[in-house]
Amino acid sequence: MKKIAKRKIFVIMIILLMLLGLTSIFYVEKKEIYKNINNEKKEANELLSSEIETTYVVNSIEGETINVTITIKNNNGIQSIIAPDGNEIIIKDENKTKFAMDYDVISGQNYKFKLKYKGEEELKEYILNADLNAKPIINIETSKNYPTLTADGFVLQKNISIDYGDGINNYYSIDDGITWNKYKGPITVTERKGKIIAKTIQENEITKFISQEWQMDLASDAIGSNAYDGKNDTIAKGNRDDIPENVTAGKVSNARFNVDNSAWGKTISIYSYLSASDRYNNYEMYVYDLSGTKIDTIILGDCRFNSYSKVVKYTIPQNVAYIINNNYNMSSCGIWEISISN
What we know:
The chain has one helix at about 1-50; strands at about 55-60, 65-75, 80, 90, 100-105, 110-115, 125-130, 135-140, 150, 155, 160-165, 170-175, 180, 185-190, 195-200, 205-215, 235, 240, 255-260, 265-275, 280-290, 295-300, 310-315, 320-325, 335-340. With about 350 residues, the chain is mainly beta.
């Protein structure tokens, strides 16, 4: 018996040591991931703050003529600028690190600017390649937005991609240039509105700097925001946010929310209000897959006899793209709240 007991203790100790080892590996790997992400952001911002920056912004276009504002930045100081037409601008403030000037260029032509920096004897030459179709170009998703259910709850999101052409050192900012991130692919933003800035840092070139605003415009058939506001006392009926007695038949439509793949396999709690005044058998939601095929029906409750509130739990299947709240001709039924329950 003592041998068996010792053997059990030995096995338990081995298992505990293995679990401790796995936990340590997970912690180190997770720490390394965060470290790499933070290092990338740090390197991007150090590069942008320490390098010479020569960019231009397009102000207006008339035919082939482009009016631009050229911005020169050098932390050591700027002493003079010689424009392509030979006009020399002397910077009187020897500590000036940033200078901007307007200039007209013609698409298809190249323009050479000569710059003299503080502490340097030789002039530096920078080429502006004028092009009506110069990169970067920002592409913001134009389709109307639906609330999207993720593993962490609902978000509003919009996808933004940037075409940098042949640029290599490509950066973007969504906080008005306070921080910069190296561009690696399409960006998903979750703020209701904002501005994205894009630029390329290219040695000996004056490159295009561009900014563009985005705004989340909800689709007319998006589910009412009361269904995901974190409150159990606000109600959404279809695409509207109202209390039951404020909505009459014909004013409510079916409403949709999208489902992110991170929510597949998650269980949601649907807290709904069922009204006997609608006199229909069931209040339902319809589940659609990535191909747009209806694959399931969520029965929220029976509306024939009584008015009451009820919670229904539902596990999201794989490959679900969106769910539709069926409020057609059921204007008094509604959703108090939809939330992740696991």
